[in-house]
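Changelog note: in this version the structure field was regenerated for every chain. One regenerated record is shown below for reference.
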Amino acid sequence: MTQLTEETFEKTLQFFIRSDQIDLRDVSFIDPYGMVGLLEIGELCMLEDIKKTILLPRSSEVQRYLERMDFFASAKRYFCLEPMHVPSPAAAGKAADSDVLLEITPIERSNDIHYIVGRVEERAQSILVKHLRYDDRAINSFIVALSEICQNIVEHSENKGFVGIQKYRFPSLGKNIVKIAVMDAGIGFRKSLSRRFKLRSDLEAIEKALLHGASRHEDEGRGHGLAAVRRFIDQWQGRLSIRSGTARLSIIPKWARGKEQELNLTNFPGSQINIILPEV
């Protein structure tokens, strides 16, 4: 395997669940979804008292990137790393002009969301304005959408989550993009919503939350978080995918590829959300 992204996550999941080792030696590209996905696999293993070994990429460039994204800070809690990771004195080049909008950050409490929003707001001008050409209104909508997704983890997952955000150049589009990955290994959409609704599948649960604003809470006004995220995605022609249990539901703009609905995936608890925002 040479890439670790949403596109390769299903193969990654199938292989890593069966194997005692997670072999990343040939990986030449990894994005926030790949990193956060690994950590959630680690979280699941830890709940089962299993500690697997990660064979780190041979590429020093990929290793530096993982360090710059603070991947190792969380990974060493879940995995044995080979070769043993030793942080570089220069903190892997965390420069002011970095394309990292948010390093891999855990989400457990509301205070974590305040920290995440603060960090993103600090870097919004240099990344969202400069590279995506977003105005203040777009940035405010972005912050609201990010907060809502993170809040869902605190309120619904009953487990910790992770978020990571990075800017890239998208050659086939000829534009810059920002990738946002937010995941948890909690109870997932179906179990959360089944307290109020009769649901036949994971896909139906995701649809109910994303397309109809359903919530497990009966309070009026609750459950509109993902609806706000969807409106933001539609407005800025972004790509959104939500995976939970054995299903994935995606909103795919004209410039992107993928399936809108995927069923019978490898069962994986919690929710895995991926957002791609293009330059205006």
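Spot check on this record: The chain has a mean pLDDT of 89. The first strand starts at residue 3 and ends at 4.
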